[in-house]
Amino acid sequence: MADLLQLLIAGLATGAIYALAAIGFTLLWQTSQTINFAQGEFVMLPAFFALVAMHWFGLPFWLSALIAIGCAVILLGLVFKLVIVDPLIRQGVLPLVISTIAVGLLLKDGAKEAYSAEAHRFPSILPDRLVDVLGVKISLAQIGVLAVALAAIAALQWFLAATPTGRQMQATAQNPGVARILGVRVERMVMLTFVLNAALAAVASLLISPIYLVKFSNGETLGLAAFVAAIVGGFNQVRGAIAGGLLVGVVDNLAGAYSGFIGVSSSYRQAVPLALLVLVILFRPQGLLGRREERSV
Amino acid sequence: MRSGLAWAAVAVAVLALALAPLGLGRYDVYILTLWLVTAVAALGVNLIVGYAGQETLAQAAFLGIGAYMSALLAKAGVPFGLAFFAAGGISFATGLAIGFPALRVQKHYLAFVTLAFSVFVWLVIRNEEWLTGGVMGLKDIERPSLFGASLRPHRLFFWFVLAIAAALTFAMWWLVRSPWGRAFTALRENPVRAESLGVNVRRYTLLAFAIGSAYGGFAGALYAPLVEFIDPAPFALGPSLLFLLMVVVGGSGSFVGPFVGAAVAVLLPEWLRFAESYYLLIYAALVILMMAFCPTGLVGLAGRLWSLRRRPARIAEDEGARALGEAKP
Amino acid sequence: MSAVLEVRGIEKQFGGLRAVDGVSFEVRQGEIVGLIGPNGSGKSTLFNCILGQFEPTAGEVMLDGRRVTGLRPSQLNRLGVGRTFQLLQVFPRLTVRENLILAGQEHQGSMLGRLFGARDAGLSAEAKRTIEFFRLGHLADARAGGLSYGQQKLLDVAMAFMAGPRLVLLDEPAGGVNLTMLADLRERLETVNRERGATFVVIEHNMEFVMALCSRILVLAEGRIIAEGKPHEVRRNPKVIEAYLGH
Predict the structure, then answer these.
(1) If contacts are CB pairs under 8 Å, which of residues 92-131 in chain C contact chain B?
(2) Chains that touch B (3 or more CB pairs under 8 A)
(3) Complex ipTM
(4) What share of chain B is helix, strand, coil (3-state, %, to 5)?
(5) What is the DSSP letter of A120?
(6) How far apart are CA C38 and CA C205, in angstroms?
(7) Could C102 and B197 be called an inter-chain contact, meaning their C-beta atoms sit closer than 8 Å?
(8) What's the pLDDT at B323?
(9) Contact call for A99 and B237, based on CB within 8 A
(10) What is the mean pLDDT of residues C47-58?
(11) C222: which residues sit within 8 A by CB, 6+ positions away?
(12) What is the DSSP letter of B153?
């Protein structure tokens, strides 16, 4: 029982991080029809910024973390939108999709060349001590991750629901055309979405790196987790991304621990989110929280 | 291009290719063969992306399925012909199986499903050591024999691959020119209208995906005896992405595009060898630039440059056509 | 004369908005029925419900007495229903001839036949006839994307006829077409109606076009039919005048 609780917490912790990545991804899709195949790399990269700040410039962790988020917002938010997305969306959806794939490759190889091909350790926000909660030993670091991630999600939800800008962003996400007619500055909202995605990805990066270690190839796994979380939750909405992320994290962790139990070798652990994806697409394609789309053809 | 001229050009190209190995060394012939194999897989991706307007991130996985299948069957003594068609057949069936649920939903779901499939296939290849040799791979893959003569010599094997690639290219050409090809173009350009004209968009899209994936399987069946040793690395997600890129760089939707793209993909690492590990960076950057300025790929670029040369005549032609067609106000 | 198309109590709701609010009417063989109404009255939504683009929230659509509600557009097409679109929907990269062949190829033969059979699916002759009938002969091999707007509209209508449909629904065929082409279009539609006994339902804003072409007019406002009758009757109907002026 205690094990289960530990696994659950660990699962929720990684799940909340996946949720951050999935939320940004979903928002980008909703507001600007951008499918960002580089999302995994967006979550891989900011940790490298922090490493550079710490190891090349000797800065303290908290400052490096802020710098990482700042650099991510500029490079993966502003620059990405202005230099890649804007020129390319004019050419159509396929060129844009191809370009995000290329950007992913660029970032991945860039990190490898500019820093190193090895895995690096990353400091966690709270030390990795075990605390006793109701007789169960839980890692403080994981509680910290869960707390920060949930706080970020809660802040985002509050922003979207309670602030005028947030509501405008929601309107843009649901129907840019109507939003424009209602006076929303759609272009600005779209830019804000990109910035937000970069920030969320950066936070996710800082939280997951202690667990995954910082490696240039993390993007594949992280990206896959984000996509599966977004789809499983229901591509249409942020709530879905959150639910999807948590589910993927929990299922992934439970499967990893009980793999012998369900007869699946642990080397197939990566396949578990994939199985989730398949199940959802087969039996509930609109996702767990999604609405059935009006037939388009 | 007028049809007669086009056929002549094709004949010349095939002849040139057939004669090429006579003047080239072993490694260059290997590269040429690799180009042909890559082009076959790229033809498949082009059908899916350029004609049916979908996205596939699994072509390298189908290559892997084809390669391992043909290698294992060859080791079991099954003649190459059977193994070849088995590789294509299994890939076709798998394409149908994974495409069917994915295409029921939103348009981009096929991309994610193929992404997941790609990772899954790679996991299976890596883990099931008893079958695939795991990370150590399969070695000593024999090249087939034709009428008792072994095709091991590099030139003979090249001509063998050339013949098969030519046949597959012809089949693709036939497909694209047939009413199916017309339906594919329609469903890429305007799926709503196509559906209203009786085109079963879902069925045709599924078929395009399955056939395109089958070409990946066929390419894999040729790849295994070419390299004579296979391991999971060339069949991971990364190479699938590269297939997508190469088709778009070559010119998606054009028939020649995949060949051009495959040439770029095979030759670029050679040319940029001095840049070593930066070649992917350079390639990715070039792809982005190309998408921004010339999304029709290198073939489109060539077309544009060609029409620039003939511009004065072209303008007159266009104006004449418009004058004839325009109704009087 | 039997009813080719019968629409009973069609309703379509989008969230809280009721775009079509209980529409029933009948179209008999050989009629040309016009469907008019101010902007936002639900005409296009009604069309889309009949044609399988949308599933109606309530109501039935019957084709020759057979229930076809909610069938997909491609299925309806095979049952003999054609349509043209308000926003231009030709295939720009295919030639005019290719567009027409495409329009007809899915109605005959089998999938395999289409793969291994003739390149033109045996439709070259029919395409040629259609091209000549709609007077597009000089453009037969031009890419559809290069045609003028009016010509593309004509092609759009021609495509709807390739399959020899019993019923064609035309969504604003006159929109953006110049006067000469308009007269041509009307004349061609009347000829097809006469010679082939094809039945039409036409949505239009161009009053002159509709009044001249149609034998019967239905007026839609706020999702409901508010008037029905011959053109000159409808024109003088006070409810109709109010519906238009009120907007």
Answers:
(1) 92-94, 98, 101-103, 105-107, 111, 114-117, 119-121
(2) A, C
(3) 0.85
(4) 80, 0, 20
(5) B
(6) 8
(7) yes
(8) 43
(9) no
(10) 86
(11) C21, C41, C42
(12) S
Report the SS3 class of residue C57: coil
Other Cβ atoms less than 10 A from the Cβ of B6: the count is 11
Q: Which residues pair with C36 in a beta bridge?
A: C219
The mean pLDDT value for C25-30 works out to 90
pLDDT above 50 (res B328) = no
Residue type, A75: L
Q: A295 and C55: CB-CB below 8 Å?
A: yes
Kindly give the pairing relationship between strand C58-63 and strand C66-67. Answer: antiparallel
* A164 contacts: CB under 8 Å, gap ≥ 6: none
Q: Contact partners of C by the rule of 3+ C-beta pairs under 8 A?
A: A, B
Whether B56 contacts B244, CB under 8 Å = yes
Least confident of A55-59, A139-143, A194-198, B27-31: A139-143
Q: What are the CA-CA distances from residue A119 to residues A214, A220, C107, C195, C198 (Å)?
A: 5, 15, 60, 78, 72
A37 three-state secondary structure: coil
Q: Which residue has the higher pLDDT, C143 or A174?
A: C143
Burial of A12 (0-12, 13-18, 19+ CB in 10 A): buried
> What's the pLDDT score for residue A292?
61
pLDDT higher than threshold 80 for residue B183: yes
* C55/chain A closest Cα distance in angstroms: 8
Give the residue from B242, B247, B220 showing the smallest Cα distance to B232.
B220
Whether the per-residue pLDDT at A261 is higher than 70: the answer is no
Round to whole Å and give the CA distance between C219 and C237.
Answer: 10
Question: What does the pLDDT look like over B123-146, one tens digit per residue?
Answer: 999 988 888 888 888 888 888 888
Q: In what order do the strands lie in the sheet with C17-28?
A: C17-28, C3-14, C58-63, C66-67
d(CA A242, CA A232) in angstroms, rounded, equals 10
pTM of the model: 0.86
Of the CA atoms within 13 Å of residue A154, those in its CB half-sphere come to: 6
Interface touch A110/B281, C-beta < 8 Å: yes
- Residue C6: strand pairing partners: C26, C62
- Which residue(s) pair with B150 in the sheet? B145
Q: Give the CA count within 13 Å in the CB-facing half-sphere of C146.
A: 18
**Residue showing tokens 């040439």:** B263
Are A10 and A192 in contact, with CB atoms under 8 Å apart?
no
Name the more confident of B58 and C182: B58
Give the Cβ contact number of residue A180 at 10 Å. Answer: 15
C-chain CB neighbours of A295 within 8 Å are 53-55
Q: Give which of B70, B89, B79, B113 is closest to B228, Cα–Cα.
A: B70
- C75, C89, C155: best to mutate for the B interface, most B CBs within 10 A: C89
Two tokens at C227?
């008037």
Q: State how far residue B17 is from chain A, nearest Cα, in angstroms.
A: 31
Q: Which tens digit of pLDDT belongs to each residue from B31-60? A: 999 999 999 999 999 999 988 888 899 999
pLDDT tens figures, B88-122: 999 999 999 999 888 877 667 888 889 989 999 99
pLDDT band (50, 70, 90) for residue A32: confident
Instruction: Give the chain B residue nearest C89 (alpha carbons).
Output: B193
Give dist(CA C133, CA C164) in Å, integer.
Answer: 14
- Give residue B164's pLDDT: 95
Long-range contacts of A82-91 (CB under 8 A, 24+ apart): A84/B288, A85/A32, A85/A34, A85/A194, A87/B292, A88/B288, A88/B291, A88/B292, A89/A32, A89/A33, A89/A34, A91/B291, A91/B292, A91/B295
CA-atom Rg of chain A in angstroms: 19
